[in-house]
Amino acid sequence: MFVTATIAFSTPPAATPSPCPSGACTIFEQGNDEVDEGRVDATIFTQTVSRDGVVLASRTHRATFRTWRVPPYAALDGRLDASVGALEFGPGDDGGAAPNGAAPGTLIDVLYENRVSGATMPANVWQSQVQHPVTAPAAWSP
Q1: For the segment 60-87, what is each residue's pLDDT rounded down to a tens digit?
Q2: Which domain holds residue 111?
Q3: Whole-angstrom Cα distance, residue 17 to residue 1?
Q4: Average pLDDT, the chain
Q5: pTM of the model
Q6: Residue 138 lies in a domain
C-alpha cells in the first residue's frame, strides 16, 4: 500500500452570514499591527492506494488556523466557532470569543503602558467575523 497526504494552504474567503449553532455568532480578530490576527485554511487530502494502483481509501478535510505576528504564531481554530467541529486530534481554539460569564474568552487584548507612570490605555483594533455552522467531514471512500 502507498499512502499520500497533501496539504494545501489558502487564505479563507470572507465569511458570509449564515445561521449559527448558538446566539453568539460573532468572533473578533485582533487587528493591532503588533498582533495582526488572521485566518489560514488548510485542505488535507489523504489517499491509500494498493500496489496495483487501486484507490483503497481517500478523504479530504479542511482545517482553519488562527494566525498572529507574535508567538505562538498559529493555533487550530474550530471548537467554539464551529468552523471545523470536533476533530479527532483534539479541540480547536475558539477563534477570538468574548468573555461569557465565567469563561474568560480568547480575545487578544493589547494595552499600551506608560513606562514612567505605569498607566495603561487600550490599543485594541477589533475586526469582527461572522461564524458559520459546522459541516461534518466527508467519510472515507470508497
Answers
A1: 887 778 889 988 898 877 644 444 444 4
A2: 2-12+24-130
A3: 43
A4: 76
A5: 0.62
A6: no
Cα–Cα distances in Å, from 89 out to 3, 31, 63, 76? 19, 29, 12, 10
Residue 118 falls inside a structural domain: yes
| pLDDT at res. 45 | 92
Encoded amino acid at 31, one letter: G
Cis peptide bond N-terminal to 142, omega within 30:
yes
Most confidently predicted of 41-45, 87-91, 102-106: 41-45
Those residues whose C-beta lies under 8 Å from the C-beta of residue 52, and which sit 6 or more positions away, are: none
Note whether residue 137 is domain-resident.
Answer: no
Does some domain include residue 103?
Answer: yes
When divided into structural domains, the chain yields a total of 1
